[in-house]
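Notes from hallway chat w/ T.B., transcribed later so I don't forget. T.B. wanted the structure written out for a chain they're using in a teaching module, and asked if we could keep both sequence and structure tokens in one place. Agreed to drop them here.
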Amino acid sequence: MNIKILELQKDKVKLLIQGEGHTFMNALTEEILSDPDVDVAKYLIKFQFSDPELLVTTNGKRAPLEIIADACRRISQSCDELLESIASK
């Protein structure tokens, strides 16, 4: 996954996430929004085949890139748990 930082401030980041679509971006934004330090988490796909831009703003207590990384870890952990559950059946 290639990521390009378009804008980075103490409480705001805008990323271009190459090759991803609505499925991953919906899951990621929902997980980011579960963090109480997040004010806004949204993505935009300007054209049908363009790469999504992710915007995250925070209340300034934590860096937005740290929050995104934590959200990705939680998604990965949920997927691991699902795979383990399926394997044990």
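Follow-up for T.B.: Residues 3-87 form a domain with the Gyrase A; domain 2 fold (CATH 3.30.1360.10). Might be a good example for the class.
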